[in-house]
Write a structure and sequence with these properties.
five-stranded mixed beta sheet; EC 2.1.1.193; about 30% helix; cytoplasm; RsmE_MTase_dom; methyltransferase activity; Alpha/beta_knot_MTases; alpha/beta; about 240 residues
């Protein structure tokens, strides 16, 4: 399979044009992946534009690609949104990376009351930038035409307001409704995943008061790093994406 690259200003390119990879993207292509003249690659802008092309020139700081084909990929009608509670170590980052590869359409960092990790001030800015970089690289690896958005970190109250018009599904191992039994409607699906210590009872009450449904994945309890990706996989099959 051809290597895939992201160039934000490539959306206006058409057949016959030259699109250049520069900066870190060029270094990755030329030095790390050792692209050669004549190889086929794909290029996207992260918002649905898909370009097929052939490498015409390679240097450590610039890789030129002549475009042979262009397509516009429609965004999914029903979006999958992962609300990932901040977690210690890299567990939340692992969840974000895998969820992006599996097809999530938006990622929302959630400052849950039981989150050990706290994003405040400059750390919140750096944290969002870090997740955005993870999402970008995972999208390239998965050859995705649409790169998921990473929102600013939200509190529980902010999250409920952010979910207006969306169907909230709270992953809870004590719930009676299985996620595989959920019948989609015309709303986007928002999956809410708690931190290591689980979602606090008062937060569950607030979610349910806002119309959220508690759902379970099965008979076992998954880590915060695996619950979201597993749920994305289940819903991808339910929505007919897989």
């Amino acid at each position: 399979m051809a290597l895939h690259f992201l160039v934000e200003d490539s959306g206006s390119a058409s057949t016959g044009d030259i699109v250049s990879l520069t900066g870190a993207e060029a270094k990755h292509a030329a030095v790390v992946r050792r692209l050669r003249v004549g190889e086929s690659v794909t290029i996207g802008d992260g918002t649905g534009i898909w370009l097929d092309g052939e490498v015409t020139d390679v240097s450590a700081s610039r890789v030129d690609v002549r475009i042979a084909g262009r397509a516009a990929i429609e965004a999914p009608e029903k979006r999958l949104i992962l609300v990932q509670a901040l977690a210690k170590g890299d567990r939340d980052e692992l969840a974000v990376q895998a969820a992006c590869e599996l097809g999530v359409d938006e990622v929302v960092p959630w400052q849950a009351s039981r989150s050990i990790s706290r994003w405040e001030g400059a750390k919140a800015v750096k944290g969002r930038e870090r997740w955005t970089a993870i999402v970008r690289e995972a999208s390239k690896q998965a050859h995705r035409a649409w790169v998921p958005e990473v929102s600013a970190p939200l509190s529980t109250g902010q999250l409920i307001a952010h979910a207006d018009g969306q169907r909230m599904l709270v992953l809870d191992p004590t719930a009676t409704l299985r996620l595989s039994a959920v019948e989609p409607d015309d709303r986007d699906l928002m999956l809410i995943v708690g931190p290591e210590g689980g979602i606090a009872p008062d937060e569950l009450e607030k979610f349910e008061a806002a119309g959220a449904e508690r759902v379970r994945l099965g008979d076992t309890v998954l880590r915060t790093s695996t619950a979201g990706p597993a749920a994305i996989a289940v819903l991808s099959a339910t929505l007919g994406r897989w």
